[in-house]
Design brief:
This protein is an all-alpha fold and about 80 residues long. It has helices at about 10-30, 35-55, 60-80. The longest helix has 22 residues, at about 35-55.
């Protein structure tokens, strides 16, 4: 079995991290990390409530963990 690995230069990594930072900065310029975290839970709660009308959602577990990761991301950003 052959493994394919990609190597990145430090410059590439730094420029990628800076680009991520700019995007997070843009996102947070509209609202605080705490507000984003609270809004995410509001959106998830609305989704759960709407499931009564929509019926069974086999991807609910994945959706929950996606929201949970986003909430944790904004909690971490808020601590920075």
């Amino acid at each position: 079995m052959e493994m394919h690995t990609k190597t990145h230069s430090i410059e590439s990594t730094d420029s990628t991290l800076l680009a991520y930072g700019r995007e997070v900065g843009k996102l947070l310029s509209s609202s605080s990390a705490e507000s984003w975290r609270d809004e995410l839970w509001t959106m998830f709660t609305g989704y759960i409530i709407s499931l009564k009308e929509q019926g069974h959602a086999p991807e609910l577990c994945d959706t929950y963990f996606s929201f949970k990761e986003l909430v944790e991301f904004f909690a971490n950003v808020g601590r920075i």
